Amino acid sequence: MLRAMTVEVTVKTVEPTPTAVVVAAATWAEFPKMWGPMLDKVWSFLRGAAPEGLYQQGHNIMLYKDDVPNVEVGVQVSGSFGPAGQVVASALPGGLVATATHTGPIAKIGDTHQAVCEWSKANGYRLAGPRWEIYGDPSPSAGDFDVDVFWSLVAT
Q: Least enclosed by CB within 10 Å: which of 1, 64, 87, 130?
């Protein structure tokens, strides 16, 4: 028996969040193999050459700018910095968003994205295109972690 996943979607305004990222254009088929090495480059920078205080307690992020997808994979940081190899300063978008928290297997995160899209359309919101994920801290007992999913909305 299949049961429908219940996702609580909320709409709010968020501030832009500074990030340290590696930028790439991918295909949806290639992306699962790409994001790990991209994130490793950011963490190598943050643990080595990053300006002091740049990383405080940010989480891993993935920003999908469009459906290509043009992606940014990285970590929340405290501010801007000069480029270091492939690692560049960027930011998660600010503005009106629809958001939900994904819990459960990460392989099912697409279901949470779909639920946010469907809820937004059903409630009269238009999706602006960019969407992103902020990965929470792992649970010590389960090893799972919650992922906050955000979709930019067109302000009306």
A: 1
Query: Rounded CA gap, 2 and 6, in Å?
Result: 12
Residue 102, classified by CB atoms within 10 Å of its CB into exposed (0-12), middle (13-18) or buried (19+), is buried
The structure's pTM equals 0.91
Written as six digits, the tokens of 59 are 């989480």
Domain count of the fold of the chain: 1
Domain CATH code at residue 142: 3.20.80.10
Task: Name the residue range of residue 58's domain.
Answer: 10-153
